[in-house]
Amino acid sequence: MTIETVTTAPIEGQKPGTSGLRKKTPVFMQPGYLENYVQAVIEGVGGVSGKTIVVGGDGRYFNDRAIATILRMLSANGARKAIVGQSGLLSTPAASNLIRTRHTDGGIILSASHNPGGEHGDFGLKFNTPNGGPAAENVTDAIFARSTEITQYKILSDEAPALDVIGTSTLGEMEVEIVDPVTDYVTMMEGLVDFDRLRALFKSGFRMRFDAMHAVTGPYAKAILEDRLGAEPGTVVNGTPLPDFAGHHPDPNPVYAKELFDLMASADAPDMGAASDGDGDRNIVLGKGLPVSPSDSLAVLAANLHFAKGYTTGLKGIARSMPTSRAADRVAEKLGVGMYETPTGWKFFGNLLDAGRVTICGEESAGTGSSHVREKDGLWAVLVWMDIVAARGESVAEILRDHWQRFGRDYYTRHDYEGIASSAGDELMADLRARIETLPGQSFAGLTVTSADDFAYADPTDGSVSRKQGIRVNFDNGSRAVFRLSGTGTEGATLRVYLERFEADLTKQDMDPQEALADIIAAAGELASIQQRTGRNAPDVIT
Ligand code: G6P
Ligand code: ZN
Question: Is this complex's ipTM strictly greater than 0.85?
Answer without folding.
Answer: yes
